[in-house]
TrEMBL record:
Biased composition regions of type Basic and acidic residues, renumbered to the chain: 34-43, 269-278, 288-301, 313-322
Region (Disordered): 1-55, 262-322
Nucleotide-binding in keyword set: yes
UniProt entry tagged with the keyword ATP-binding: yes
Annotated SUPFAM superfamilies: Heat shock protein 70kD (HSP70), C-terminal subdomain
Family: Belongs to the heat shock protein 70 family.
Domain of life: Eukaryota
InterPro entries for this protein: HSP70_C_sf, Hsp_70_fam
Entry keyword set: ATP-binding, Nucleotide-binding, Stress response
Protein name: Heat shock 70 kDa protein 4
Natural source organism: Ilyodon furcidens
Ranges of Low complexity composition bias in the record: 1-15
Gene3D superfamilies xrefs: 1.20.1270.10
């Protein structure tokens, strides 16, 4: 029992010693953290102030002192040579363009002969043109590699002499229906005009009958021509030139329009409305005369109205009071 009691005071002394030590240790920790913070702050460099920039303008003198200069004769010679080189480059470009045009036509026409132009060329003409194209291609990569510009132009003209008629037939077949359609619309328009005139339309009652008859005749002739040419062309082969060209159809449309349109659009004559004559001002009473005439007129009217009433009262029979 004594040992236990001795141990308890020993433990109490130990706790007091630890309590006494902890505040010191905490103070040491706080001082160490503050020192570390100070060290961190001291590690960062202080922010430097922005220095003011001062600008100073100085005028720099310019001196032109060429050390060497060409003579006028030599300078003119160089300019002349430069002009010759520019002209030579231009001629070389034109020569290459002419050569490329021949090559491009060969490749393009070869594809079209077996494509969109197949219906518009006979077999014999297609074979002849195909052989010509092949020969031209071989010539371009052999003797025609470096030829003057005019040689390429002549070679292209030879090819187009065979190929252009085929291309023209294709273009005619593409544009012909549109041209016939425009002519047909024009004919229908003038047919409606003649029919409206015959129905006594007020819009055309000012036109002469002879002019309307002229429009009717020209319109019928154009319709007959269009129907006949369309029928003939439909039976014609596409591999030969067309019977009627697009320019002929457009010329017929223009002729019909220029003759008939002035008659159809003739305006009505303007009717001049007679001007109404303003009556002359009558001299009437002025001022007090109007006032004096008004009551006299009223009196006369009262007298006229009063007479019948008096007559009626006088003509009434006496009533019996009984």
């Amino acid at each position: 029992m004594q040992t236990d009691q001795d141990a308890q005071p020993a433990q109490g002394d130990a706790q007091k010693q630890t309590e006494d030590k902890t505040p010191n240790e905490s103070e040491e920790m706080e001082t160490s953290t503050e020192e570390n913070k100070g060290e961190k702050k001291s590690d960062q460099p202080p922010q430097a102030k922005k220095a003011k920039v001062k600008t100073k303008v100085l005028e720099l003198p310019i001196e032109n002192s060429p050390q060497w200069q060409l003579a006028n004769d030599m300078l003119n010679l160089f300019v002349e040579n430069e002009g010759k080189m520019i002209m030579q480059d231009k001629l070389e470009k034109e020569r290459n363009d002419a050569k490329n045009n021949v090559e491009e036509y060969v490749y393009d026409m070869r594809d079209k002969l077996h494509g969109m132009l197949e219906k518009f060329v006979s077999e014999s003409d297609r074979d002849a043109l195909s052989l010509k194209l092949e020969d031209t291609e071989n010539w371009l990569y052999e003797d025609g590699e470096d030829q003057p510009k005019q040689v390429y132009i002549d070679k292209l003209a030879e090819l187009k002499k065979l190929g252009q008629p085929i291309m023209d037939r294709f273009m005619e077949a593409e544009e012909r229906p549109k041209a016939f359609e425009e002519l047909g619309k024009q004919i229908q328009q003038y047919m409606k005009f003649v029919e409206a005139y015959k129905m006594k339309d007020e819009q055309y009652d000012h036109l002469d009958e002879a002019d309307v008859t002229k429009v009717d005749k020209l319109n019928n002739d154009a319709m007959i021509w269009m129907n006949s040419t369309m029928n003939q062309q439909s039976k014609h082969s596409l591999a030969v030139d067309a019977l009627v060209k697009v320019k002929d159809i457009k010329a017929k449309t223009k002729e019909l329009f220029s003759t008939c349109n002035p008659i159809v659009t003739k305006p009505k004559p303007k009717v001049e409305v007679p001007k109404e004559e303003t009556p002359a001002e009558q001299n009437g009473p002025v001022g007090d005369q109007e006032k004096t005439q008004e009551p006299t007129a009223d009196k006369g009217a009262a007298e006229n109205t009063g007479n019948p009433t008096s007559e009626t009262t006088e003509n009434k029979p006496d009533m019996d009071l009984d």
